[in-house]
Design a protein that fits this description.
The complex is a heterodimer of chains A (291) and B (544). Chain A has 291 residues and is α+β, with helices and mostly antiparallel strands. Chain A contains seven helices and 13 strands. Chain A has helices at 26-32, 84-100, 107-116, 152-157, 196-200, 209-216, 268-272; strands at 8-13, 16-21, 56-59, 66-67, 78-80, 140-142, 167-170, 177-180, 206-208, 225-231, 240-246, 249-254, 288-289. Chain A is globular. The chains are: A alpha+beta (291), B alpha/beta (544). At the A-B interface, β10, β11, α7 and β13 of A face α3, β11, α17 and β13 of B.
Chain lengths: 291, 544
């Protein structure tokens, strides 16, 4: 049987029947039917990397669990997103991540750890990813002890968005790290500082230097923060910027990943070029009669 | 009608086009997120040809790079047109139905043979033929350009030459095919749309049209001056003649940004009265009698801006500006009051609604809709209208939607006003760098790790013949002035061509060199083509 793109197909999800657009992934179908499936390496503006195994679900007829983010629904698919086997698998994935990585700045993962009762302490002396925080410029820092190797930054830097290819996975096994060529410091690498890697990072392993400084100074307070949607001024493309502030100072700029202009991606000027708005830039503040 | 002041296409169209022609644009650096859409197109299989004197970061993604001599664009475009006609690849049916003047055009471009064009432009005949075939044979094709086309003494003719190609092939007025001038600031498009042009009222209504003026007079409560004003270049000429004695500059830094800038500075200094409204104490503000501190448009103000796909989008205040800094529209509103024109609109939204009542192409764009729909593309004549993804669909309608047919334009190659001479034998052209912006007053606020200041990029051949080494400090002079700057030797640079950005006037006062010859049709100066000489200083001096 051949399917056309617009065709609706029947599926069963957690015991409920429904129809979804042919070609839809299990993740898309579930969201359509109001069922949430947790994701980590998936992003709406990137092709699924199938790296994290957090979104796996049971698919009748499949020996192994399947990743919901990339597995496409077939007519008559019978899917279970919250079976005991699924929950156990997610719990283990979270425990392994939590045992190796610093997830303290990943509130969404923390919530999942609570939800699935993941307990990393049951591993005796687990191997952990240890890395010095790389502070090489004033724009963003890299803390690879938080990196879960989800591939998002590599894909955003590569042919999924930016086509700069400044970073890739390097090393083998436990020593695998995201790296520039020959671990060159970022300012000397091919990096063009678009910050699109920062934009897609799910664990704050990559973060704005301004946010890093606030957190280091123990002055991080989400209660005092705002987010405002506006348009970048640096060229005529009209990129939507979400400006994140604390106490009237900008510390981060993002763009919504579902936006038709940006798809969540920005350039160095849009993402980092806001500093002039605030001190130490000197701005005129009263009419100046200079002669 | 054909010729309305806006890009015809949506960004998404370039993702789906079969052929992309990037002409006089380094979008990879100057419009990076638009270039993401281009890259999606290339990834999906589109072919791209790039016309640029330099093999830019953008041109490196192209299937064919046409390294054109600065200012020979019309010769190239006309040769492409001639080749399309000679190969019988023009769209005869579209031409007959939707255009006028084809026979005269065909005759006019006859002299632009491949051989002639190759000689004048420096582009090999094969590459010109390849471009002509690829553009004409594609089912959908986009032409994109920026200031490499417009910042010439004949910039308007350059644009018309590209429009001719679209009319010849029917690559306009349908999804995937169009003409896209990428705008350099977030509201260049909106500024023109709002009537910040000497001969236009908002919505491209003519100042000389009494019926249009009367609509505005009814709201402002006074008669409007029926005489079109002066554009920027004419204003400086009027200052030179003593006709303009007072100037009100809003958010512009001409004391750094104008071509032949020493002339500009003298004119600004000689004014009786100069008011500057800005967010910075720019070099222009330092010359002012009064500085009116403004809030930052995109980060501290309510309002709208309009992008290169004619999308009107909301800006909102994310932070509060310094005490005393005020929104531009409040400053202007107060000034109007003191001049005896009590404008009724006070908030940004009230002002926008006033505009909607006066400009039919904006009428359907309420703040609420702009918010819900992530902006709307003009024209949007009523509140049920979805906005217009591409312009000139009427060209394909049986009755042309009641519009006059689109005319071919006859344009001729002239070359830059400033010819190379024995004394000034090198061609200087300018452009933007990825991490910096215009005169640098905004972009110097952040520490870019990839910023390298201002260098004059020259070819290996020229460096060798002048016995210059990488990083050497040299004197660069044009007939108007002289600066000292470092040179940067580029393997891929064409012989006889020098390039620099213009982002660091505090380091290198580059516009001392540029030419202020301007296009009488647009008022835009020929920033892109000056003639210079490069002189060695003392033995291999380096900047300290």
């Amino acid at each position: 049987m051949t399917l056309t793109a617009s065709e609706q197909i029947p599926i069963s999800l957690n015991g409920k029947s429904g129809t979804v657009q042919s070609g839809a992934t299990i993740l898309e179908a579930a969201r359509e039917m109001g069922v949430e499936i947790p994701t980590l390496c998936w992003a709406s503006n990137l092709t699924p990397a199938n790296a994290c195994r957090l979104c796996v679900v049971e698919l009748e007829g499949s020996r192994t669990l399947v990743p919901a983010c990339s597995r496409v629904c077939e007519p008559g698919s019978v899917i279970n997103t919250e079976s005991e086997r699924v929950a156990l698998n997610r719990k283990m994935v979270l425990e392994l991540l939590d045992s190796t990585n610093d997830l303290s700045e990943s509130p969404e993962l923390q919530a999942l750890i609570d939800h699935y009762g993941a307990d990393a302490s049951r591993y005796d002396e687990p191997s952990t990813m240890k890395d010095d925080i790389k502070v090489e410029d004033d724009l963003f820092i890299r803390a690879y002890d938080r990196c879960v190797l989800c591939y998002k930054c590599v894909d955003a830097c590569g042919d999924e968005a930016q086509f700069t290819f400044a970073i890739s996975m390097a090393g083998r096994g436990f020593e695998t790290r995201v790296s520039t060529e020959f671990e060159t410091p970022l300012p000397e690498s091919a990096c063009v500082y678009c910050g699109n890697c920062v934009g897609v990072c799910p664990t704050n392993a990559l973060q704005f230097k301004a946010e890093f400084d606030l957190r280091q100074g123990d002055d991080w307070d989400p209660q005092r923060q705002t987010s405002t949607s506006t348009i970048c001024s640096y060229c005529g493309v009209g990129c939507t910027l979400d400006i994140h502030t604390q106490d009237n100072e900008i510390f981060k700029v993002t763009s919504p990943s579902d936006h038709s202009v940006t798809a969540g991606h920005l350039c160095i000027k849009g993402r980092f070029g806001w500093q002039y708005v605030q001190p130490p830039t000197r701005r005129p503040s009263s009419p100046d009669m200079s002669s | 009608m054909f010729g309305a002041g806006g890009g015809t296409s949506s960004y998404r169209e370039v993702e789906e086009a079969e052929f992309i022609l990037l002409w006089g644009s380094n979008a990879r650096e100057a419009h990076p997120i638009y270039f993401h859409h281009v890259l999606k197109g290339i990834k999906a299989g589109a072919k791209m040809h790039a016309v640029d004197p330099r093999r830019t970061a953008s041109a490196k993604f192209a299937d064919s790079w046409l390294g054109i001599d600065v200012g020979s664009d019309i010769a190239l475009a006309n040769a492409v047109a001639r080749e399309i006609i000679a190969a019988n690849l023009h769209n005869q049916q579209f031409i007959e139905h939707s255009t006028t003047g084809f026979d005269a055009f065909r005759e006019h471009v006859e002299k632009y043979t491949l051989d002639y064009a190759a000689e004048v432009t420096g582009v090999p005949a094969d590459a010109i033929r390849g471009l002509a075939r690829a553009y004409a044979e594609a089912t959908t094709a986009q032409i994109l350009w920026t200031l490499g086309i417009t910042e010439h003494h004949n910039g308007v003719d350059n644009v018309l030459s590209l429009c001719n190609l679209a009319l010849l092939t029917g690559h306009v007025g349908r999804w995937g095919s169009g003409l896209v001038p990428l705008r350099g600031q977030n509201n260049v498009q909106g500024g023109g749309d709002m009537g910040a042009l000497p001969n236009k009222l908002p919505g491209f209504q003519d100042v000389i049209d009494k019926a249009a003026r009367d609509k505005f007079s009814a709201i402002y409560g006074l008669d409007l001056n029926p005489t079109p004003g002066l554009h920027l270049t004419q204003m400086f000429e009027a200052m030179a003649q003593g006709m303009i004695k007072a100037l009100y500059v809003i958010g512009e830094n001409p004391a750094d940004s104008e071509a032949d800038v020493s002339h500009t500075r003298r004119l600004l200094e000689e004014l009786d009265f100069l008011v500057v409204q800005d967010i910075f104490l720019t070099r222009t503000a330092e010359l002012a009698d009064v500085v009116l501190p403004a809030t930052v448009g995109w980060a501290e103000s309510e309002g709208t801006v309009t992008s290169s796909e004619r999308r009107v989008q909301r800006v909102r205040p994310a932070v509060e500006g310094p005490a005393g800094a005020r929104h531009d529209h409040l400053i202007i509103g107060d000034l109007a009051k003191r001049l005896g024109a009590p404008w009724p609109a006070e908030t940004a939204e009230e002002l926008w609604n006033e505009l909607r009542s006066l400009s039919p192409m904006h009428t359907g764009m309420t703040y609420k809709r702009l918010e819900e729909l992530d902006g709307l593309q003009w024209p949007c004549p009523d509140t049920n209208h979805p906005g217009t993804p591409f312009l000139h669909g009427w060209l394909w309608e049986d009755d042309l939607g009641g519009n006059p047919r689109a005319p071919f334009s006859l344009t001729d190659y002239e070359g830059p006003k400033e010819q190379l001479t024995q004394e000034f034998p090198i061609r200087l052209t300018t452009g933007r760098a990825l991490d910096s912006y215009n005169t640098g007053v905004q972009s110097r606020g952040f520490n870019s790790p990839i910023r390298s200041g201002e260098q004059l990029q020259i070819s290996e051949v020229d460096a060798a013949s002048l016995r210059l080494s990488q990083g050497e400090l040299v004197r660069v002079s044009s007939p108007r002035g002289s600066v000292e700057m470092e040179i940067d030797i580029k393997r891929e640079q064409a012989r006889g061509l020098a390039f620099t950005t213009f982002h660091f006037p505090e380091l290198v006062d580059l516009n001392l060199l540029t030419n202020d010859e301007w296009d009488p049709k647009s008022g835009t100066a020929e920033f892109k083509a000056a003639s210079i000489k490069i002189e060695k200083l003392t033995n291999g001096a380096q900047r300290a």
